[in-house]
Amino acid sequence: MANNKKKNDVVELEKVVVRFAGDSGDGMQLTGSLFSDSAAFAGNDFATFPDYPSEIRAPQGTISGVSGFQIHFGHTFIHTSGDFCDVLVAMNPASLKATLKWTKPNATIIIDTDAFNEKGFDKAGYETNPLEDNSLDGYNVIKAPISTMTKAAVADLGLDNKVALKSKNMFALGVVLYLFNRELDKTYEFFEEKFKSNPLVVEANKRVLRAGNHYAENVEAIVQTYEVQPAELEKGTYRNITGNVATAWGLLAAAERAGLELFLGSYPITPATEILQELSKHKQFGCKAFQAEDEIAGICSAIGAAYTGSLAVTTTSGPGLSLKSEAIGLAVMTELPLVIVNVQRGGPSTGLPTKSEQSDLLQALYGRNGEAPVIVLAAKSSVDCFYGAFEAAKLSVEHMTPVIFLTDGSLANGSEVFKIPKVADLASITPPLAEANDPDYLPYHRNEEKLNRQWAIPGTEGLRHRVGGLEKDNPTGNVSHDPINHQVMTQLREEKVNRVADYIPDQNVFGDDEGELLVVSWGGTYGVMLTTVEKLREEGKSVSLAHFRYMMPLPKNTEELLGRYQKIVVCEINNGQFIKYLKMNFPQYQYMQYNKIQGLPFLVSELEDKFNEILNDK
Amino acid sequence: MTLDTSKMEGLPQLTKEDFVSDQMVKWCPGCGDHAILSSMEKVFPQIGVRKEDFMVVSGIGCSSRFPYYMNTYGFHGIHGRAAAIASGVKLANPNLSVWMITGDGDCTAIGGNHFIHAVRRNIDFNIILFNNKIYGLTKGQFSPTTDKGSKTKTSPQGTFEKPFNPGQLVIGAQGTFYARAVDNNPKLMVEVMLAAQKHDGTSVVEILQNCVIFSNKIHDMVTSRETKHENQIHLKTGEPMIFGKELDKGIILEGTQLKVVKIGENGITKDDLLVHDPTTEDPGIHDMLCNMTAPEFPVAMGVIRAVKQETYDDLMVECIEHEKEHSPMKSVDDMLMGGNTWEI
Question: How many CB atoms lie within 10 A of CB B17?
Answer without folding.
Answer: 9
